[in-house]
Amino acid sequence: MTFLPHDRYCDEILHQVDRLRTVVTSGADLAATVPTCPEWSLEDLVRHVGGALRWTGLIVGTRAEENVPMDRVPGAEGPAATGDAAALDAWLAESGEVLVGALREAGPDTRVWSWSGDDRAGFWARRMTHELVVHGADAALAAGLSVQPVAPEVAADAIDEWLDIVRFVQRALPGAPAKELRAPGSSIHLHATDTPAELNAEWFVELPEEGIVWRRGHEKASVALRGPLTDVLLGFYGRLPLDDPGLEVIGDRKLLELWLERATFG
C-alpha cells in the first residue's frame, strides 16, 4: 500500500474543500436532489462532508483510541439555518481548517483510531482526500456544473484506495453486498487514456471466491473501462454512468455492472 506524501493530502483536502465551497456559493439550489446520492439534497451532502471533516479532525486531534459519536463533535451539525449558502460556506471552510490543522500537527504516523485496521493519522489524510474528491463530484452534478478533473496522482491513488476498501469490506463484513462480488475466472481492466506512462494509471482486478485481488498494469481482462482518468475513477465509483461520453466499455459489461451494484463501504 503506497500513500502520497502526507502534506500532499493536506493540500488536496484544502483544494477540494475550496472546490466544494465554489459549488455552495454558485447560486445552486441547495434543496436540489443529488442524483448520485438521491437520499440527500445538495445541502444535506455539504453538511455530511463538513461534519465528517470535523469528526475526523477530532479523532486525529485528540488521538482518539476508539470511535467518537458524532453528537460529541463540536460544530458537526453545521449552521442552524437551512438554505443559507454564506453560512454553509463559512462553516465548510472552517471544517476543512479544523481537519488539516489536526493532520499537519499529528503527521502521518501518529496512532489514532480508524475503522480500517490502519490506526494512523495518515489513513485519515488519504481517506478524507478521496471522500472530498467523490462528494465534490456529487455536488457538482447536483448543481448542474461540470465535474472538474482531479490531479492525476490523486485520482490514481483514489482508485487504489477504493480497491483496498472493497477488499477490506469483503474480509471484515461478511454480510456486506461486496461479499457477493465474486466472478471466478473474470477480471476488470481500468485504463486511463490521458496520463503519462510513468504514472502507470492502469489496473487489473480479479474477482475470485475469496475476495478481489488487484495490481497496477496493462493486462487483457473480461471487460475494460477506458477514458480520461477522472472519468474512469468516477465511473468505477458509480458517479458517472457507463454510457457517459467520456467512457468506453469493451467486453463483458455485465461484470462492470456487478461491480457497481456490489462495491460499497458496507
TrEMBL record:
The keyword Isomerase appears for this protein: yes
Domain spans labelled Mycothiol-dependent maleylpyruvate isomerase metal-binding: 12-140
Domain MDMPI C-terminal: 153-257
Keyword set includes Isomerase: yes
Pfam families: MDMPI_C, MDMPI_N
Alphabetical keyword list: Isomerase
GO molecular function: isomerase activity
Signal peptide: none
Cited NCBIfam families: maleylpyruvate isomerase family mycothiol-dependent enzyme (TIGR03083)
Name of the molecule in the record: Maleylpyruvate isomerase family mycothiol-dependent enzyme
Organism: Streptomyces salinarius
Classification lineage: Bacteria, Bacillati, Actinomycetota, Actinomycetes, Kitasatosporales
